[in-house]
Amino acid sequence: MQRLLRHHLLWPVVTLVLLLAVNAAFNPGFWQLQWRDGHLYGSVVDILNRAAPLALVALGMTLVIATRGIDISVGATVAIAAAVAALMIGGELVVKDGVQTHVSRFPMSVAIVAALAVAALCGLWNGLLVAKVGMQPIIATLILMVAGRGAAQLLTGGQIITVYYAPFFFLGNGFLLGLPFAVFIAAAVWGALHLLVTRTALGLFIQSIGINPAAARLAGLHERLITVCVYTFCGLAAGVAGLVISSNVKSADGNNAGMLMELDAILAVTLGGTLLTGGRFSLAGSVLGALIIQTLTSTIYSIGVPPEINMVVKAAVVFVVMLMQSAEFRAAVRGWVVRPAAGGVR
Amino acid sequence: MGSTVVLEARGLTRRFTGVLALSGVDFSLRAGEIHALMGQNGAGKSTLIKVLTGVYPPDAGTLALNGEPIQPASPAAAQRLGISTVYQEVNLCPNLSVAENIFAGRYPRKGAAGLWRIDGSRMQQGARALLARLNLDIDVTRLLASYPVAVQQMVAIARALGVDAKVLILDEPTSSLDEQEVERLFAVLRRLRGEGMAILFVTHFFEQMYAISDRITVLRNGELVGEYLKTDLPPAALITAMVGRELSAASGRNAQAAAATGPALLEARGFGRRGMLNPVDLSLRRGEVVGVGGLLGSGRTELARLLFGLDRSDSGELQIDGQRARFEHPAQAIRHGLGMCPEERKLEGIVAELSVRENIALALQARLGIWNYLSSARQKEIADRFVKALGIKTPDIDTPVALLSGGNQQKVVLARWLATEPRLLILDEPTRGIDVAAKQEIMNEILALARGGLAVLFISSEMDEVVRVSDRIVVMRDRSKVGELPGNSSEQAVYHLIAAEA
Asked: In Å, how far is B346's CA from the nearest CA of chain A?
């Protein structure tokens, strides 16, 4: 019991459960699941599906933050990856053997690989600026946050590029074993990353670098190389999220895709209990964080908060959750509550 | 040489949480002199300067400037009185122009009521005039960061002069300058002395101190040892004044040096880096403990950092087992069987929030690489072995290393390297800041390892320790190696060598 109370995921889990409870209270049908055409439908499935891209971005962000860094360019990377994929797939209507079909400009696999490669390149650029040039992470990634958004707008010509190629829609809209395919993508990335940080020395290395880069270097860690790899992965993860998002909306919007997603991702990581000061991190926490954010968004809509104040409500909830997460704050509260009772004894 | 006393302190005393950092120190600084403040680490030099400049109020004692009692409450207040300080680390703003730096906080104003606009041209003129006093003619509108450190240092001095200074205090102004730059700085100081400025100068470099100062005040353990004219205090006497105790005559390690004869494991020739370490020759054999003797700032730590690839050498060559080697990253040194316990345990040694187990496994894991992961079980096995062997006192091996005492943290860092089965271990101040018992245990462990064939480069400020454990002693001064002594030399002999020709 004591161990359970001290578990680092306790507070994220409590938060999520509370939010789900509020949802269920306001919306009796919240837990209802329907089986239609071999697919599961319901609010919970919807939250999972919508949280998947954010979870992907947050996973990459977790590692970056663990190295004491931050990457505020992930939203732009999402937009770039989406734009590259949409441009390369396109989808033209042609008549083949008397049947109208949509044909992709490049094979879809090539387009996906290219989009992911460009996203990884974005991450690599950030990593080089941080680790080799020695820029502060927030400034280094600010460059790509601005320039990357511009590049995405250039690629799309400032328009929303619509994709007409059905197989591509599977990423963001398809179902596998009754569940949205995007959920499987996020789960697979999470699983692979979990194995990588627990079954290889990567987790130990990243934490060492985040806690004490000088000591890590002196112990023989190639701290710069690892940092570059971490940022590259973060870009790649954002690229995957970009594909899922553009597939989901069947288009790429250079102006708005992934807009402010970096802030949600940082929030998700923080909600999950990973400190911005680097070091110890929790992948599961970040996934929970992404779920909390998405659930909160759904809650705000489902309980009918007027749209003009929903940002305020969201901010208030995040504020309370952050206070709950703080061990100092909890200790202070305990102090207020316990002291009068204990006063007589002492 | 000046004669009127400008700044006078009587009976200055200052405590920090019970520790007496300054105890009844008298000090006087005269116009037109350069006065050196000498003492070992912890002698109270910094505290004295901070009391003189109003950073700390004294617990007891008085300060007088030109005969008038003063009580500066802050560095700014001291500056208004005419006591200006230039600190070791240049603390200016690299992103402001030279002129802005010189006048930061007291920009000349113009316009209505002189309140609103900064008078740029007046500021630049003033800056140029001040720099001209220092014989420096540079573009004052350029960013400070675009100039080398030596120029930044001059700008810091110009800033200090700007407020009509009578007393200039320089805290280790030369620690990041090369020889020519030092010469240039000294020319400026001599010029200011000629103008009647009273200059207090703190340095660890003997040669520089003798080159520039007129008078020397020596502190030890927070107490005044004495004030001397430079001509009355030859280097040997200065060292005795600084170290203060009877130096042990004989050594403990009775010349087992014969044990280490084979070929050199590590050989450095003309090995150095400009501005850090003048070219050094050094060789180390298996099973040999080579001590490095020298005062703070003598280049000991720089030697260790260059050998281990933490900084890159730019002269000479390094051979391991007779093969040329060049280390640009510690990982390369580790691959050749080197290990290093750094001087700053907290900054560069331990990874505070990681467990004892992870800390011990770290260097070995770094060498094995990412894929060749030591399982928790293997890590536990290794950690258990060393916790037992070195007597590391920890509740369990999963305790964060930050919760251990200093001595035990040091043992963890030592264990980290022993786990890599090194052939050469560089120990930079391995016993600093740890209790006597732990110190003894660590020293015994090092000697036992050397008997087992490990080569050790042992760096310590505590000369008795160096003399006791070393087979050979490399003596350093002013970033150069000045000689080598056999292991059974006396401390006296080491200090003599340090002081010779300084």
From this structure: 9
**Which residues in A have their CB inside 8 Å of a CB on B?**
199-202, 204-205, 207-208, 211-212, 214-222, 279-280
State the best of B370, B372, B378, B414 to mutate against chain A, taking most chain A CBs within 10 Å: B370
Facing A211 at nearest CB: one of B353, B368, B374:
B353
Considering only CA atoms, which of A25, A19, A72 is closest in space to residue A47? A19
Coil, helix or strand at residue B485: strand
The answer to whether the beta carbons of residues A87 and A163 sit under 8 Å apart is no
Is the CB of B369 less than 8 angstroms away from the CB of A280? no
Burial class (CB in 10 A: 0-12, 13-18, 19+), A15: buried
* Amino acid residing at A308: E
Q: Each residue of A177-208: b (16+ CB within 10 Å) or e?
A: eebbbbbebbeebbeebeebbeebbbbbbbbb
* A215/B351 CB distance under 8 A: yes
Residue B338 or residue A319, greater confidence: B338
Q: Which residues of B touch A208 (CB under 8 A)?
A: 351, 354, 358, 362
Q: Which residues does A326 contact at the CB level (< 8 Å), separation at least 6?
A: none
Which of B308, B352, B365 is nearest residue A212 as measured by Cβ atoms?
Answer: B352
pTM confidence score: 0.71
Taking only the tens place, the pLDDT of each residue in B233-286 is 887 788 778 877 555 444 444 444 445 567 888 988 999 898 888 899 999 998
Pairing state of beta strands B289-293 and B472-477? parallel
B453: distance to nearest CA of chain A, Å? Answer: 22
Count of CA atoms in the C-beta half-sphere (13 A) of B422? 31
pLDDT digits (tens, 9 = 90+) for B324-373: 988 999 999 999 999 999 988 888 899 989 999 999 999 999 999 889 88
Phi, psi of B169 (to 5 degrees): -110, 125
Q: With contact defined as beta carbons under 8 Å apart, do A153 and A254 qualify?
A: yes
Question: Which residues touch B259 (CB under 8 Å, ≥6 apart)?
Answer: B287, B288, B451, B471
ipTM of the complex: 0.82
Residue of B nearest to A209 (CA): B351
